[in-house]
C-alpha cells in the first residue's frame, strides 16, 4: 500500500517549465503583399543574387584598381623585363656557341663584303674562314684522342706519385729508424684526399642548388648588356639608365626604322659597313655608316625621332647628317643628359678683347667644343618662344662685338624692358620703348643706317676693295664695323604707322650692308610672313632658333626645308631646353645644336657692366690700331700641327701629345690627348696607321706629310 501510494505520488508530480516575463512585444502591421514578399522563396533568391552580384562587382573593381595601379605596372614590367633578359642572354650564348663551332660568322662577313663589292675583304675573310676550319678540325681530332692520352697520363702520374711517396717514406724510416714510416707519406696523402672528399660532400648540395641560380644570373647579365628587352618594358625608375652606343646598338636602331632596304640587307645576315667605328667624341659618340643601296642619309635624318628611341635618347641628342656621299650617314649621339651640363662661364667675362672679323664667343656644341658666331659679312636672325633665351643670345653677340674697340653698337628695343639698358654707354644709338614717338625714333635711326650703307658703297669704290677688311676698319676712314640690333623686331615691323617703312629699310640693309661691315641682328619671337619680311629671313646667313612651336617658324629661322631635313628646333622643350638653340651658318654643318653662354644683367649679379667698362677702356687706345685682340679658340688641323712639330725622324706616339700641347697651348683637346688616342684619331679620320715597331708606335713624319698633301689635293678637287 505504501509502495503503491509512493509510486502514485511520484507519477502525480508536475515539473513546471520556467517562465520569463519578456515584457511587451514590438512589431508592425504589414500588408498581405509585403508578407508574401518577405516570405517568398523567389524574393529571397533575388536578394541572394543581388548580394552575389554586388560581391562580384566589388571584387572586379578592386582587381581592376590593383591591376592598373602604377606600382603593379612597374612590378609587372620589371618581372617580364628580367625574364626577357634571361631569354636574351640564352640567345646570345647560343649564337656565340654556334658561331664558335661553325663558320657562320665568317660567312656573314663574306656576304657583307660581297654585297659591298669589296673583293679584297672577301678574299681576306675567305682565307680566315679556311684557317678557322682547319683549326677546328685539329681540335676535334685532338678531342677524339684525348681520353686515351688522359688515361695514360693519369696512370703515369699516379705511379710516379706513389713511387715518390714510397721513396720519401723510406728516407723517413731510415732517418727515424721506424719501419712504419715507409708508408707514412702515403697515409698522409690518403688522409688529405679523404678530407677533400668530405668537404666536397658537405659543399656539394649547396653548390648544386646554387648552380642554376648562378647560371640564370649570368644569362640575365648577358641579356641586359645586349639590351634584349623591348623599349615598352622600360619603367620610369629606369628612364636614366644609359645604354652603350656601339655598332650593334646603332644597327639595331636603324633596323627598327623598318626602312625596306635596310631590313632586307640585315636579313641576309650582312653587317652594316662602319667607315668610322663608334668612338667617343666629346660629350657623345660618333660613327660613320655606309647605308644599303637605295637609302639616303637624308631619309634617316627625317626619322630622327624614331632613330633616337632606338638609341634610348631624346631626339635632340641624336644628330644624323649626310656624310661625304648621299648614302653615307654621319651620326653623332650625345651622352645621356649632356644638355644638362650647360655651356659654362662666358670666356671673356673677366678679361680680353675681340676681333669681330674672327667672330665672337657664342656657346658650346653638344660635343663640348666652343663655337663662335661669325659676324662679318653676315646678318643674324634670332628667335624662339618667350623666355627661352633669344634675348640672351642677342646679348651675347652684342657683348662680344662691344669688346672690339673698332666696333660701333646701335641697339633698338621697341618694348619696355631692361635687357639691354647696360649697353647704353657703349651705343651710339639706343632707343627703348613701345610708344609711337619711340618707334618713330627707331625709324629715323634705320633711315640713317640705310644712308650709311649707301655712303660706304661709295667708299668701297674709292678704295677699290670688294668688301671691308680689318686693315681698312683700322684706318679710321669710316669703314669700322657697325652692329645694329633690333630686339623684339616684330613689334616695330607690325606698327600700324611706321611698320611698312621699317620693313623696307630692313630688307635693303640686310641685302646691301653685308660687305660694307654693317651687320644687322634681328630678334623676334615667332617669325611669320606678317611679323618678319621674307627677304630678311632669306638674307640672314646666321640663324639661331630656340624652342619654336611649328615648322613655319623653324624654317624661317633655319632656312627653307630645314624642318623636313631633320633640323628641328620644334623638338627643343620649352623650359627644359632653355638656353639651347639650333643654329645655322656658324660652322660648315647644315646646323648645330648649341648651348648658348649666359650673361646676367640683374642688379644683384650684373655681369655685362664690367664688360662694357672694359670695352670703353679699350677704346681709349684708339684711334689707329685696335687694342690687341684675345685669341678665341677655333678648330685646328691635326695634320698641319703634326707637320709643324715633327722633324725628319720618327717620334714615339706617346711623346707627340706633349709636342702638340706645347705648339698650341690654348687648344684643350691636345692637353687631354694620349699616344693611344692620337693613333686612333690618325687611323679613323686620316687613314694614317701607326705601326707598333717594338711597341714604340713611331709616328713617321713622311706618312703624316703625305696625308696632309692628299688632304690639300682633296680640298682643291672639292673647290672645283
From TrEMBL:
Any idea what this protein is called?
A: DNA segregation ATPase FtsK/SpoIIIE, S-DNA-T family
Organism of origin is: Amycolatopsis keratiniphila
Q: Which InterPro entries is this protein grouped with?
A: P-loop_NTPase
Q: Which UniProt keywords apply?
A: Membrane, Transmembrane, Transmembrane helix
Kindly list the residue ranges recorded as spanning the membrane. Answer: 150-175, 195-220
Reading the lineage from the top rank, the first entry is Bacteria
